[in-house]
Amino acid sequence: MPRKKITISEKVEYLSILNEKGQLDKKLEPDIGEDVLLKLHRFMVLARKFDERLLNLQRQGRIGTFPPIKGQEAAQLGTIAHLRASDWMVPAFRETAAELWRGKSLENIIIYNNGFAEGVDIPEDRNDLPISVPVGSQIIHAVGLGWAAKYRQKDDVAMTFFGDGATSEGDFHEGLNFAAVFQAPVVFVCQNNHWAISMPLSKQTRSKTLAQKAIAYGMPGIQVDGNDILAVFSAAQEAVQRARSGDGPTLIECVTYRLMMHTTADDPKRYRTDEEVEKWSKRDPLPRFQKYLMDKGLLSEDKLNEIESQIMEEIQAAVEGAEKQMAAFGDPMDMFDHAYAEMPPYLKEQKADLARELSEGGEEGDHG
Amino acid sequence: MAKMTMVQALNLALQQEMEKDDSVIVLGEDVGVDGGVFRVTDGLINQFGDQRVLDTPLAESAIVGMSIGMAAYGLKPVCEIQFSGFSYQNFHQIENHAARLRWRSQGRFHVPMVLRTPYGGGVRALEHHSESREAYWAHTPGLKMVIPSGPRNARSLLVSAIQDPDPVIFYESKALYRAFREEVPDAEETLPIGKPQLLKEGADLTMISYGAMMRPTLEAAGELKDKDGIEAEVIDLLTISPLDEEILVQSVKKTGRAVVIHEAPRSFGPGAEVVSRLVEKAFYYLEAPIERVAGFDIIIPSFSREKAYLPSFERILRAARKVLAA
Question: pTM for the full model?
Answer without folding.
Answer: 0.96
